[in-house]
Write a structure and sequence with these properties.
Structural class: mainly alpha
CATH topology: Four Helix Bundle (Hemerythrin (Met), subunit A)
Number of domains: 1
Largest sheet: 3 strands, mixed
CATH architecture: Up-down Bundle
Helix content: 55-70%
CATH class: Mainly Alpha
Number of strands: 3
Number of helices: 7
Strand content: 5-15%
Order of helices and strands: HHHEHHEEHH
Length: about 170
């Protein structure tokens, strides 16, 4: 499945990054990221995938009710373990789901939007790439760590850049 390959690609990049990071680099607040840490961005990525996995059986996904587990943002070994676990579980059959969400700042009233598992995987993949771009900015300010040229870059942008070079 092409979508799984895309998710695998970004997960491998995140795993490679986690291997290179010190625990301190993973946890430290980064001023250019509004004092968010690399760990907070990784936690956010992982929790959305975990929400999707939890909502699959119930048929309702609500990203707003995620746990926000501080252990994930401070323990890169736990993040690594969860990343591998999430990848093992994304091969589920596509099925209809409801996305439960709210877009009113001062109301807890939610709405249900028709979606499906594959569409939510696409959302999570795109969301992950976006956060990887932010992680790249943070890494460039705190550490001298190798990141692939396409780390945090959408596949469509990578394809476009390759066409421009030819």
């Amino acid at each position: 499945m092409q979508l799984q390959k895309g998710i695998n690609h970004v997960f491998v990049q995140i795993l490679d990054l986690l291997e290179q990071l010190t625990a301190n680099h993973y946890r430290c607040p980064i001023p250019i990221l509004s004092n968010a840490s690399i760990g907070q961005h990784v936690r956010h990525i992982l929790e959305l995938f975990l929400c999707l996995d939890a909502g699959y059986e119930k048929g309702i996904v609500n990203y707003e009710k995620r746990k926000r587990d501080l252990d994930i943002e401070t323990d890169k070994d736990l993040a690594t373990h969860l990343l591998l676990q999430i990848y093992e579980n994304i091969g589920k059959e596509n099925r209809s789901l409801k996305l439960e969400t709210s877009y009113e700042e001062f109301s807890s009233e939610t709405i249900l939007i028709d979606t499906n598992y594959s569409r939510e995987l696409v959302y999570n993949l795109e969301h992950t790439v976006h956060h990887m771009a932010l992680i790249r900015i943070g890494i460039n300010t705190i550490a001298d760590i190798y990141l692939p040229e396409d780390f945090g870059v959408a596949a469509s942008t990578v394809r476009h850049r390759r066409k421009m070079i030819k």
